[in-house]
Queue: 4 jobs
Job 1
Amino acid sequence: MAKRKVDTENRGFQTRWESEYMFTKVAGKPVCLLCGESVAVLKEYNLRRHYETKHADKNKNMDMEQRLQKAEELKRGLKSRQALFKKAKSQGQAAVKASFILAEEIAKSARPFTEGDFIKNCMIKVCDEVCPEKRQLFLNVSLSRNTIAERVDQLSINLKEQLVKKGKDFIAYSLAVGESTDISDIAQLSIFIRGVDSNLSVTEEFLALRPMHGTTTGHDLYEEVSRCVNEMELPWEKLVGLTTDGAPAMCGHRSGLVAKIREKMQEENATGELTAYHCIIHQEALCGKALKMEHVMSIITRTVNFIRAKGLNHRQFKAFLTELETEHGDLPYHTEVRWLSQGKVLQRCFELREEICLFLDSKGKDTTQLRDEMFLCEMAFLCDITSHLNAINLQLQGRDRVISDMYSTVKAFKTKLTLWETQMRKENLSHFPSCQTMKEKLSTSAFPSTQLADKIGMLAADFRRRFADFEAQKSRLELLGNPFAVDVESSPPNLQMELIDLQCNDALRAKYAAVGAAEFARFLPGTMPQLRIQAAQTLSMFGSTYLCEQLFSLMNLNKTSHRSRLTAEHLHSILRISSAQSLTPNIDELVEKMGHHQVSPSTSNK
């Protein structure tokens, strides 16, 4: 015979029991109004036995009306206590949530953990003026250094858990890897992941920052990357691409990171081929070296350093420009690491070339080179071509960039270079305004158009050489960029039938025109599985290590000479929070996990 289950007997609480036995119903259970004890099973016998055993003597002289009044008073008291408890619990949870919110803001703004005490002190002072009766609520918010550090770690763990959960749905993913050194001379390896799920939604997030205390060989890098992939529980066969900063330890054919990961994929019997890229932005910056115009830049750098290096010279130069009422009031510095600064320095020096010569003359410096017409023509050309290179560099930067769009940008620039070379040979300077200015001011010598056209030809050749690996993937990239223009016959056999169906579908063609290439992939129907997989793989690929470089900037903002003892774990947590894009910490979930813990009031007014 089956055992009886009390819960299935639908026993109801009867109102008369309140006055007869001094019981009420709280959260589905009978609770004694006199002593607060609860009875496990809702049966009249159990309630009566409890009352007669423990409370019968206290209320034996009461009539029914008095018992009713007594029961109502006790019920009101119970409700009051419950409300007070709920309020206290609510206030405690609000205080904990506030500490999480402020910890997140402190991490995002690269502030030290001790800023929590300063913020609390400010809050208390504001509270004293605006709402002094709420002072205790603000005091209950714990913002000590240790609390902020703990909250930051909890927020980071929550973000990682979300990423791991998302990673289980990835049908394709790629990695971007970069390496740099922090203020303590510790090599830091940054890893980002870009994954695509079955709905073709892209997730681009920070994966890890790994400190490298010893060597940074290809094997060392591989060990750290492999550990990250395994921690995420990502299958190696779904890894599509690897984009690096181009260092030998990354790209070495035998023992580099790329080679090691390819070996690992072969061991795991992965069917796909790993596509490895050297960062497009790095490549574009390196192409500028092909111009071989360091002699021009060295003269400019020496001139700028003479003016800026000494405080007196700098002050006098600014006063000199103010006296002449020039458009610009100063010269910027040029730093080799900051690629875009070269264009700004060149542009400013070209615009202030006459004023600079006058100032150097007043200081007794030789300005023969700076006044030489050939040098000025080369400086004007370098100014214009650097401006064009900076423009494409800015186009390639940013988050959530689709590699097919980046390829199209580079392809367009190569076409522009061909046009500029042809026009330069004909002395058509439409796209070179500084050169146009110099040509008009030349006194005797002719503008060196042939020599400068050769420079453009050298730049174009270097672009073709450096971006040859992207040309090898041309058909794959164009398939995502414009599937309606792809030649079906030259496409892989497994895609041909689906491509014909796609190109003959007017509704999908209209959708492509409306939403663009990057978004269109989501609208590919389930009847085209091969095209969807191909789109997912291409969408997952990084075109550059921009995110890694951006992370290193954040790292340098956080780990400074004043915070050089910041631990690797705390630095990792801070960077995960500050670099998060599509993920946000679930603070409500974190507060709930802390249960009924209530932050104790601070003993100080800080």
Job 2
Amino acid sequence: MHVGVQTNGDDVLRFVDGSIQAIHLLAAGEGEGQYSHEQRVALQKLVQHRKDLEKKLLSKAPLERSRSEDVTGLKQARSPSEEMPRRQSERRKAPPPPANVEVQQRHSANHAHAPPPPPSVSSNQVQSPSDMTEALPPPPDAATMEQLNHTLTESDRNYADPTPVNGQPASPTSNHTPSQHIPENNLPSPTGKTDASSSPTKTADLQELLKTVDLPEKIGPELLEEVRKSTGLSFDKSKVAVETVLGYVGFKVPALEGLMDRLLGSLHFGRDISDEDITSHDAKRMSVIFSELTACKDDSQQRSWALHEDEAIIKEYLQELLSILENAKPSICRKVVSRDNYEILHSLVQYYQMEMRGGLCLLLLKVFGAVCALEREVVLQLLYSVLPLELGQELQLHHEDVQRVCYIALVMTMIFSTGDNVSLAVSERFNQEFFLHILNLIENPPTEQFEDGAVDLLISFVLAFNLHLTSVDTNVVLRSLAAFGTPKVFTEHIMVLINRGDDPVKSFDFKPQPPNSVLKLFHDLYADLTTADLLYTNDAKVLMDVIVGRMTNLSPGDEVRSSFLALCQKVVQNSSYSEHCHRSRELQTILQAISVEEADTPDDQRIAMDILSKNPDIFSQG
């Protein structure tokens, strides 16, 4: 009895293997690698049923070996053909592929709801895979598949461990483990392709499933942080890299497009300063560097004499700080720098005052330039600190060091670029004597290298400082220009700037924006009679060419056109324009057109009519 039941279990196992192969052949032949719903359901049941059968057969193997000694006589009485099926089932894990005759017998057994008797298999009956494929019957049709599902359901319900317990057969459901549902997406495809990518329906289903995936709230900023930390790229470049990768994945894998869009959306989360910024890698490194630099400032030895042994360490700190300020997320830098009412910034200024080593001073100047780009408040903090006074003194003492002069002039241009009122100490320090020294460096550079590198930056500094001077009568820049005589190099440079429309002082986009520094200087020059004829005649004619061109090309209501119109009024009234009347006819035509234009520009119309009415001798000559 026991032997018969064991043989029945092997037969069911071989039957399941043959059915699985038949379904694969059917899908590969007719469905071109695509499985129908009925085939998937059948495969799920067959795969699970085969696992259950293997577990049951393997669990009985130790018991069979223990009982084999009691049934030795019975085994000797059996013929070799009867013994072979059981011996083979004990040695192998899976049966050989079914032969043609076996498949036909199993199909007939499906309709009879009973498994066929076990065949006797010998070594010379085993066929090659190609022969077996050719010998297999046509794959089962839909009716056969439905019958197969019914048979598998009945087999799942009726098959049980046949080992007797206390001399009684085991209950059909006593040791049966319910089959576990296998998702369709987990089934292998004969073509090796993922079904979700080849079927629009499956792609849509996967997209709906991915919509339910919960993403961490800060995954976007965290991903950017990891990319920047691992690659050393700037924050902006890291963001471009992440956006490119996520966008490309979403484009190439449509099923993941929705998820990639959600990840891209999370990149913009927390664009403003957030609590997470302060815990980032860049924030921690900035805090460490500032602490070390503060310790250097507070070191009693550093106050009296420089420890040259620590120069390499301080240099490394400053270089890392400069890299973070230039490449990290700006909100992180702003958050760290603004701690304790910008205490860190003022510590850096004090450290710069005490540092005497030229290499470290240059790095500190670069750091000051980098922090100025963070926000307007940082610029104002430096403007009202002792840094402008220190830098002004260095301009007078270290003008032979061209590189240092260039960095000092650049930082001072940034500090004075806002146009805010300066402190009394700055007004007293940057007096006429100071600007005469600057003009002398511009007009008579000590070296050719100085002329090539520092002159333009010094002119930019003069333009930036002039933004703070609102009164023509007390304008120290105008007094210095008038006292110097005819600063040829200075005037040539500013003529080039106004002709190009450039403003070298405009370094940031902070609000509110100051006026154009070049136009402001020309307004101030022609508002004062002592400097109205500072330009050479040819330069004055070029200036009138620029004014006529701007008023012709710019639209009514444009602030730049209004500014050039007001400058034209000062040039005509306060300078010696009447001596040459350069382009007076064209200027008269423009002024007449502005005075009667339909646009809502009452100020421009008033200025145009005022110029025409107060200078009839000039425009009547046209």
Job 3
Amino acid sequence: MAADNPVPPEMKWQWEVPNTFWPSNATDKSTVFGSFLFPSERTHFLLTTIEGMTDPRVSDTEVVARMMEVVLRDPDSELDRVPQVVSSIHKKLRGISEASLQAILNRTLFQMACLDPDQVVEGLLNTSLLCDGVAGAMWRTLVCEHCPAEEVLKELLFWLWDQPLLRRASFMPNDSYILPLTAIRALNEILRLPSSKVPVQLIFPQLYLAVLFQIFFSMEYTLQDLQDYSQMCGQEDECPPVSPVRSAVQAMKALLCRADYAHLADSVERQGGWDMLMSMETYHTGVTLLTRELWMNAADECAWVFDHVVAVLSCRDKQREIAAMAVFTELLNCTDFEQEIDEDVLGFLQLHLCNQSLAMREMVIAGLVTLSERRQTARSLQDLLPALMERLQGADSNFCTKALTILSHVLHLVDRKRASAIGLQLAEELRPLFDDEAARVRELSIQLFQHVMAIVVGSQQEQMRKHVHSSLLPLLIHAHEEIPSVAQASREALLSAAKLLKWEQLRHLLETAQTWQIGECLLVRDRSRAEEYLRQSLPYLESPQECLREVAVRFLGLVGRHMSEQGEEKLQDICKALQSVVSDTSPYVWSLAVQTILILRAPREKAPSGFTLRTLCYRLRRAWRRWHPPPRDSAL
């Protein structure tokens, strides 16, 4: 008889395939009819059973369990209106306390997730936008076994990657714009279960980056926003007293712990990183800290993260660019990422050199510094040099320091003809930076100027000599700086200038350390530049460095004597400028200014042909002794 009536393959599969979740004694052959239900019939059956399971006439819960099994056990079963069934389960769980019925509903939810995880996840997200206690338990049910857990997390990742747009001009209830915030709360519930460890580890880099972006997105919303939206959608869920951004940060902590990086989370905590992530002003700093810790503790996870943030930057995703740039900049410091940077990324970096956000500008320039330090990637930065030069004027000292570093690194790799053209343009941009308030900027700009003098060739050298002539006095004054590195850079640049100009006397004075004679040397060599030197020296009377103010006063005395033949008006202009120094905080400087004014205003006889700087210094010393100050050597 058995041979005449072979067992249908569908029924044989149902009998033979083990299932650890469902009762093993469900052997009634009548259950096979569930395989022949249409999706709409199957859904109607489930909804009817869920609705009637609490009817007083239903006394055998095992019957209810078998009825659910009938329609869901076939792995090829198709479901219809899944979100409606999920919502019905949620509603029923909120209203029953009997453990056996709760277990049946949870088993039903679990089996539905095995059949259609995408619809179940979306349905549960929409069912409880605030992820109340019942919804939290349902999320944990979905990942209690590995089989559906991985698919559930992947689907949840899809929603986590999206940006919440709660504040739209208009929206309809149950729109999906709030679901990323709900997904974060759901992820927190899922990560509470040890069974989520393996699926989390499989997609950790993707989850890490998605949660990182959600932290930034969620800062725009408050707890009240979620409550208002939930009520508008007709839900009266009890909302956990946690703001969206705090919930997202908690999810990141839980993610690290579940992926066996609890020590990383602790390290970030000690450095205040979690608090940084919750503030718009310090978010990028928190991302940098977190990414650095990830590299130090889980370098293998960083390759995918790096590749993906490069993709985000390439497509110019404005919503994610702050976090992506912070991750990109930090991971550039890792030696594994030596590949050339895509042109789209370079375009993005160039675009954001002028970004209104200070944080973005700082991250961009820091990333470019790292790229410029590696020969392979530095070559790709040549097209960015003009943009960097344009940004030098008016930029803060931090930006200028990094920009000058990049220019120094990349110029060495540019072909000679192109480097010559860039160098000529750069010479003009560098001159104002000699007087920057930051010593490091002064030093780097002077060093780069010295390098530029060497790379300009051909017909452009004549124009370069004009820039060099205009820079001689500023370099001379800075050669007397109290910052040794700046003073040394200035003297070396002056020596290179003397060689370029083929000025042997200036070269001899520098090589023999006779800097006190260089001022007169400049004036004697070209008297037509005296007025230019006068204009250049005046700002140094207000320098914060006493030694530079002193040099400026002395040089103005020299200029006054050399311009005496041009009339009283010029001398009065110089004396007026020196008069502003009389109230100087340094007794030495104001005394020197007073004496210089007296000498310049004194009745003058025709100066002997042998008048030199030495004569002026002698007169200044003689006038100085009348005031009985402490002795001090002359700077010029």
Job 4
Amino acid sequence: FHLHLILLDFKVNRSSVVFIQQPHDLVVVAGQPVTLPCSITGYHGTVLWVKDGLALGVNRDMSGYPRYDVIGDHSKGEYHLLIQRTELTDDGSFECQAIQAATRSRPARLTVLVPPDDPVIIGAPVVSLRAGDSLNLTCHAENAKPAASIIWIRNGEVLNGAAYTKTLLRDGRRESTVSTLHISSSNIETGQQITCRASNKAAPNGKEATVTIDIQHFPLVNLSVEPQPVLEGNLVKFHCAAKANPPVTHYRWAKGGNMITDATGDTYEVLVDHSFFTEPVSCEVTNALGSTNISRNVDVYFGPRLAAEPQSLQVDRGSDAVFSCAWIGNPSLTIVWMKRGHGVVLSNENTLTLKGVRQEDAGKYVCRAVVPRVGVGEKEVMLTVNGPPSISSTQTQQALYGEKGQIKCFIRSTPPPDRIAWSWKETVLESGTSGRYTVETVSTEDGVISTLTMSNIVPADFQTIYNCTAWNSFGSDTEIIRLKEQGNNQFTPSLFLQRQKHRGDSHRMSTETPTVLDSTCDAVLHNVAQLYPHMHKSVRVSN
């Protein structure tokens, strides 16, 4: 509105307006300032800077962009755009526009370059490996624009043969580079330093990370467990046999990651329970060069125990529902998936996959585990299916002439309906009161009931077609309802309406003899189409 007033207040001779300076394509490194020039002679109206088609501010008002300033001598027509501390978001196309002259500069592309983060070598600063093993080094250079190039250097020489991949980040501009270098055992010496250098146009000199190679001989360890298998509550002996050069200095025992303080030598004895089946016992052997850790589980017999609890799901209609249920038990257990109240086995795996679920698939599912001759366990989950609303109502409802009448439609919908509307003739009512008509909506445990109440029923009400429509984010459903005079059992063929409902993307209505209802149906359908053009469903009356 303000801009419109400006256009009315000023008359500018367009031919006299000339761009002395126009913005031109620029490349800048993120964090540096940049100025886009714009000088206009013969013009004293409103100047507007535009980025990617969006206005940034009028004249020198850049209050919405704290890093942007319009600089220069206003009296000389200078409106240069200064961007301080450029960021990646500044990357785009800029124009300088003389509004009253309806003149704009040529578009200028501002390209913002971003240097890579400091490269990171996995395992740095020291990578240790056993004698005889080959070496694999991986270097990451993240968040660069353009993507960083990576080279590997040892003793001043570039090492060839590295493989690399580039990944475009979610912003669609920056990229991350990963380089992997393989070196055979015959080409490595302990103490060598290998450097990863990452560079791009924003960092031509590159950034470096260095790793030192340390070749060690760890203890060779064998951990034995006797006896196995064993019942819960029986005694088990762990023996940690090690060969090391230099010799072993000490042993350390742990169970499930927790230290065992009363075991210090190469042997550990304990009465086992079910936890020894899932929590391994580890023996760590140390010499002057380092440690070797080895662990073993015990083959303990026990009944079913839940290892990963299944989670209830809410999925869209037509999508796959995947439940996961992990049990542990010993000896081997059997898993059975069933729907509560049904005797059909759906799966004998940890995972139950329901392909292309329908709304009738919603309900409770049970994951049951059986260890033969030991025990049984089960866990219940709920499946909720999202889909378009489903309306179920009596298509012919009754009322008394001269009295208050009601027609109802019952809506099942997950997620709940966003809107519910009644329409008849040229009227649409979602809630509240309009004339003789009132719409009320009540939520219940099973769904939503929408009621259209009519005060003082008149004969025309029995000739009217009422349309109840419900929407949610997945679609809509429509029910056509007719009001019949209570106690009048006379059947009139011309008023017979047979409705075929198709769930999904369309609804169809058909009539056998539409002589009386054609005009009423047309009015309802026209009303719905005009007021709700976004409906992804169609309602058609066929002769």
